[in-house]
Amino acid sequence: MNGKLIPVFVLAALMSCSQPPVKEQGPRPVKLAEVTSLNLVEKSFSGVVSPDQFSDLAFKMSGPLISLKVDEGQKVRTGQVVAEIDPQDFKWEYAQNQLEQTKLRAPFDGFIQKKYVENYQKVQAGQGIVCLINPNKLQIQYTMPETNITYFSTPYQIYVEFDNYKGIRFKAKVKEYVEASPDGSGVPVFLYIDDPEFNLNKYKVAVGFSCRVVLHIESASFNEGAVLAPLSAIVASEENNDKFVFVYNAQSQKVERRQIEESGLV
Question: 20 to 30 Å CA-CA from 52: which of 6, 114, 166, 248?
């Protein structure tokens, strides 16, 4: 058994000794990262367009539904009949003045986002029949970590960039946000766009469209000239505890080794 194993190890040793060391050929490609000033931090979040005005329409009395005249996505006008329950029980009783309430009308111009019931179903008083949305009153909703809420206590600017209009940023303002995360996933924040350049007739944006929320924070908590650099770009000296980065000059196309002073992790 040993006679079979020894030649194998010897052969492996001979093969490893006979291989010359591999030398690198040519320049090695590196990844470049642009540093940003810590006095002006930019944070980016994923957002979505949601309705600022919506209403779940419901009847004030119960009864069998005899007419549901709209479909999801359909536009309706103010006063248009959306649904109707059977009026027979209200024609001969004492509730004659409630006869008109058997017809469910749209309180404003909009479109039907969702239907909660089907025709000929018996519905209860206060039960949602459809959800009506005003397409001209929109808001932006996104979620941010609880630790980032402190940014709103410092000077900041906030912008919205829609996925279907890349490169165009609109100024926005915070409408409201929750002080704490309701389920641990982050704090819901709602914005409204107050940029005079934003026009729904020009920019076709609707409920459900995705966007990017960009937050610019001005911070005086760092020294003048402090920058944010990727952790992977920091190299430690083998001789001492000095740390440095390699800075690339695009004009001269040369790299300079520059010592740094760490202030902490962000």
Answer: 166
Give the pLDDT confidence of 49-101 residue by residue, as tens digits. Answer: 999 988 999 998 898 999 998 999 899 999 999 999 988 866 667 556 677 88
The length of the chain in residues reads 266
Q: Tell me, what's the pLDDT at 178?
A: 79
Q: Which token pair is 78?
A: 């103010």
In whole angstroms, give the CA distance from residue 42 to residue 229. Answer: 13
pLDDT digits 0-9 by tens, 206-247: 889 999 999 988 766 666 667 778 888 888 888 888 888 888
